[in-house]
Amino acid sequence: MFKHMDTDAPTLGLRERKKQKTRDTIIKVALDLFAERGYEQTTIADIADAADVSPRTIFAYFPSKEDIVFYDLAEVQARLAAALRNRPEGTTALDALGDFIAASLEGDSQQVQRRCVIKADEGLQRGKRARLAPLEELMIGAIVEDLDAGPGDIRPQIVASAVGAAFSSIHDENGPPESNTPEHAKAVIEDVMAFLRGGLEALRQR
Amino acid sequence: MFKHMDTDAPTLGLRERKKQKTRDTIIKVALDLFAERGYEQTTIADIADAADVSPRTIFAYFPSKEDIVFYDLAEVQARLAAALRNRPEGTTALDALGDFIAASLEGDSQQVQRRCVIKADEGLQRGKRARLAPLEELMIGAIVEDLDAGPGDIRPQIVASAVGAAFSSIHDENGPPESNTPEHAKAVIEDVMAFLRGGLEALRQR
DNA sequence: AGCAAGTTTGCAGACCGTGCAGTTATACGC
DNA sequence: GCGTATAACTGCACGGTCTGCAAACTTGCT
User: Which of A53, A62, B69, B90 has CA atoms 20 to 30 A from the CA of B118?
Assistant: First the structure.
């Protein structure tokens, strides 16, 4: 009956919807608990209780406790890959990266909560850094093509790590409150882009 | 008798020497085992057996299994701090960083082995990234002073992360063998420095 | 209804890491 | 030298993460 309605809302089967809901629940209760009493002080059993599932089930959804916190990493990664792949002809990878960061400024309340949780825990800050690596790899790949860089060329690594630093810096919302506005973020992005273009130009003149 | 020979070799007491030896032994056998059968496949019990100590003792020397691999991080950190603190008047923090990286090119065979071990394990690569953070913090501090940067200024983060990337890149010995010579490394450092100076200059002209 | 496939669960177990208390080795004053 | 204070080592028990496995359960489809 619904078999022929494959328009754009796939009307995911009950199974899929339930699964998604379970996943969302786990994320939500976990972040709430982490925010309330800290990441280390919250056990998998606590989360399982609050989400009304078995502890074992949590590991069916997330490979590790930390992965609950970074629940949307795969999605971000996919979006970044798409942004680099589908950028308009004639724009540089650097341009695409700037746009991507600017576009990723909005964050729902869950993501805000997540940032607090990460900021409150040493291990999670490490985890965040570590999980930035695949994103930088994506950037490096695109920049290598963009600059037609050879294997010994270090420019892609420099640029990618700098963009990563800018990304972190903008999302970290340290400093005074006025540095937390979209305008300020855009200004920072502009600065970073100018810096990197200047650096690339300096190398070009050697 | 030897009590009066306190020239420059402090002749650490037996206790201290033994402790140092135990630490060295643990590091050595651990790295050997990691290299032989992999980091994950080696348990603390294995290391304890091979080092002829109790498993419990290992945690008296290293806070975690990973810390065995990064046994010299504290020393590197101290050296970096000293290099930034004691740099000759008139040289920039960037100059000091370039010199520091150039000076840290030699590595004994244990450090080479360590790099192999890290390269072979996903988790250790993450750990390495995470442990770079305090070094970058040191750099950031020095660069902030150097540039007289305000709290909202992102230049220190950019520069530090780029230097960190260069540091990693040089130590990672990927690519062809000819890219693994000190000459090549120095050339890379020169490039990075030129890049960063160019970037800073570009921002200065705004 | 009933079968196939996917999901959830409990159980047992490996491993990391910590607190504690007892034992052993070193250092130091006499 | 000798005894005592001090530091290191050790064993033990425990809490926590994460995995493999097989049994129970739910969903999708005919």
Answer: A62
Do A152 and B175 count as a contact with CB atoms less than 8 A apart? yes
Calculated CA dihedral for residues A171, A67, B136, B168, nearest 10 degrees: -120
3-class DSSP assignment, residue A151: coil
Footprint of strand C on the protein (CB under 7 A): A 15, 18-19, 22, 52-57, 60-61; B 13-16, 18, 42-45, 56, 59, 63-66
Smallest Cβ–Cβ distance between A198 and the set B169, B192, B198 belongs to: B198
Whether residue B144 has pLDDT greater than 60: yes
Distance A115 CA to C21 C1' (A): 42
CA–CA separation, B13 vs A23, rounded Å? 58
List per-block mean pLDDT (blocks of 10 residues) for chain A, which spans 206 residues: 43 82 97 98 98 98 98 96 95 95 90 96 97 97 95 94 94 71 86 96 92
- pTM here is 0.90
Distance between terminal CA atoms of chain B?
A: 70
